[in-house]
Amino acid sequence: MTDTVWAPDGSNLVVHADNAEYLPTLPDGAFTLIYVDPPFNTGRVQRRQETRMVLNAGGEGDRVGFKGRSYDTIKGALHSYDDAFSDYWSFLEPRLVEAWRLLADDGTLYLHLDYREVHYAKVMLDAIFGRECFLNEIIWAYDYGARAKYRWPTKHDNILVYVKNPAKYHFDSAEVDREPYMAPGLVTPAKRELGKLPTDVWWHTIVSPTGKEKTGYPTQKPEGLIRRVVAASSRPGDWCLDFFAGSGTLGAVAAKLDRRFVCVDQNQAAVDVMAKRLAAKAQFTAFPPDPGA
To answer: What is the dihedral angle through the alpha carbons of 276, 282, 283, 285, rounded to the nearest 10 degrees?
Structure first.
C-alpha cells in the first residue's frame, strides 16, 4: 500500500507538490468536496521544467521519499510550448480522473474555468463522470477591469458542478448566504428579511485591492464565492480538497466553516502565501518529503 501523509483523522494539510504525483497517494472516496481552479488555457507561451527523481543508494540525496529512501532531484530540459488545446487538456484530464476517484459517494466537484474552455471541459467531464452527474453551470459575474471595444466585454467565469452519485450527493441550500429581493415590496416581510436563494448566476465582486482579505496572489478568489460552494456541498467535519490551491482560499473558508481541508500547489509563491494565511490552521509538508524543510 502506498504511504501518504494524509489521514482521515489527521490535521488539515498544505502540501507543496506536483498534484499529478501527490493525488495518487490519497485513498478512494476521501473527500466530500473538491474545488479546482486550474490555470486557464490562455494561448500564451508557457515554460515547464522537467524533473525526475533518482534513487541514491548512499542515502545522501536531496529528497527523502517513501520509507526513508533517499533520492536525487535531476533537472532536465526546460521546454517552451504554446498553451494550446492539446497540451492543456492532456495536462488537465488525468487530474480530473483523479478527482472523480477521490470524491466520496455524496461528493461534488466544482471546476472553475473561463469562457475559452468551459464547453470542452463539459464534454470531458460528461465522459469521466457521466452526463447524468452534471448538476449545474454557475456563472460568476463581476464588473472590473478594462472593457474591450471590438466585442462584448467578457466579465464572468464559469464553474461546472458535477456529483459523484446523483442519488446521494449532499446539497444544503439552508446553509447558503441569501441575496436581497430585487422587488422587496412584492414579497412578505418574512421572506424579505430572509432573502432569496442565489440562482446559478452569482454576482460577486473581486478581492478588494485594499481589503484585509487580499494576499497579493494574482489569481486569488474571494472568500464569499468559495463560502457558497463549501456551505452548500459539505458538512462540518467533511474533508475538502483543492489541488490547484493558489492563495489557499478554499482552506481559509473551510477552516472558518469547521470543515477539514487539503490544499496542494507546486508553486513556491503559492505555498509562501498559504504559509502566512493558514499558518495556525494546517500542517505544512512537501511531497516527496524534503529533508531540508
So the answer is: -70
